[in-house]
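We now fix the convention by which a protein and its fold are recorded. Here is one such record, which you should read through line by line:

>
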Amino acid sequence: MRQIKTLLIANRGEIALRVMHTAKAMGIRTVAVYSDADATAPHVAFADAAVRLGPAPVAESYLNMAAVLDAAKRSGADAIHPGYGFLSENSAFADAVAEAGMVFVGPSAHAIEAMGDKARAKRAMIEAKVPCIPGYEGEDQDSAQFITAADEIGFPVMVKAAAGGGGRGMRLVHDAKNLPEALQLARSEAENAFGSGDLILEKAIIEPRHVEIQVFADAHGNTIHLGERDCSVQRRHQKVLEESPCPVMTPELRAAMGEAAVAAAQAVDYRGAGTVEFLLDKDRNFYFLEMNTRLQVEHPVTELVTGLDLVALQIRAAQGEELGIAQDDVALKGHAIEARLYAEDPALDFQPATGKIALWQAPEGEGIRCDDGITTGGEVSPFYDAMVAKIMAWGETRKVALSRLAQALDKTTLFGVRTNQAFLASAIEKSGFANGEATTAFIAEEFGEEGFADPEPTLEDMAVAAALLHRKERAGALGSALHVPEELLEWSSSLPRPSTAVFDDQTFQTSASGGDRYAVRSGEGETEIIVRDLGPSHAKLHVNGVPQDYTWAVTGQGEIYLRRSSATFDFQDTSAVLSANDAAAGGGNLVANMHGSLIEVFVKPGDKVKAGDRLAVLEAMKMQHQLEAEIDGTVEEVLAEAGAQLASGDLILTITEDEDAGS
């Protein structure tokens, strides 16, 4: 047995903080690592020591094994916890940590390698008699072989990256004619994301549940499971909502899935925390999907229903201790649900978003837990995953947990960057989720082809914004004045002088009508606002006689954010002026729609293109996004090359529209 004294966490954000909290509670010194983009991040400030890895791109920082190992040596670390993502499932890294004389808080390199390759893992599971989906996992990677295998399996099929996860390198194919393109796209995305273009093929199980079993093993031959998590609600094959227990689980089914998961772990001589993922069909048949050889993002829901600290169990197993719990000791109490807060725009097909954080306030309350790695004044950068926080709720029953989660989402504030907060609040209210009936088709079924549209501000919301801007400006003027008695605030010897704000070409005039009472006029309408309590970020108002609570922040000249329940609004007091990005974008110009790396450009000057043609691929936050032509025309100039780092709005190429395009 080897006691860990100093633990380096080879990760960032909320998982780095999560691991540090437990390590410190166990009396272990913690070391953070960081890129230039994370120099002032919360996990850096919280750690006992911190070491710079390099520039912001992951290949030069968090994926740089040599830099991480050097940081561990320089900081005196005797163990490394990889968190999830980055190097957490890299067998070469696990080997390198051991060769450097340090403890890797995770499974052996053998287990990582065996389960990290989907084809090899599936072959091992078939041998271990774990139920598997029919498919092709052979070593012959020729496209013709995949086409033949797909015909034998029968459509629809799922193309998957053999070395990957998280939805990257994955394509659902309904028809044979679409398979060659799907193979090409999946292979390209897999090579960029994982350094391997190897693929596997599986029969697509339509509308299953995605149910995973948490397993733990120690070096003394003990392997147990801690129940299941239902992770069916996903977008782009990435999880959005997770819960434990699964709403349709029975004791018999849990025992069978748990037994299969334990068998899967034992088949590769597993040690530490792992998750065996299954697809569960409508008839309650389950099939092995993959094994994640690390701690999962959604591990807290298991902690909430079992009362166990999974990071502490990881550390104890890594030190060579026994788990200290047997299968019969594991009991699930109550219900827990997790909602992943992403910096993204659900109205634009969940496109990742970036920006400076103007205000972050995590929810609090009975049964509420929030794991985050952000802070007011920080930044959501384009270099890393779009998830910024996990909002969780526990209750004695699923109904109580769901109600608490809804309240938590209504109390969460993130200003400065678009998020999926309103989408999450809407999703958990849908009958399919509320009744525990959600499958992997949930988002498509509940939100349809049109998808999700963010709530629009009401006239009253805009009036409140105008009134709060007025108060902010008044406070600024008061602060620069030598002395103004409290009783003279808002007083005028003449008629009231309204302050004016213009939001989206709509003019709002705010007039004080005594004390904390305001009249906000727009067009023919008037909104009465009475300020009952006004703090730096919270406002209790009566709006046309109705009590309303808002969270607010003024972040720039005339810019104000408001949150009402789970809906966030951003208002800019300005005349309508096209931004530089708007002026550059559209029609004949192709611009980067977000910060990212330009992976490929498919055209050159002089090429003819049609509207809808694929022109380039941009990679941001580990996802690839296709950029298409908006018009028919000829490529005039290509201004960016593959490999370039682009900011949102950067011009990539220009197109001259065909003269007869509109005829």
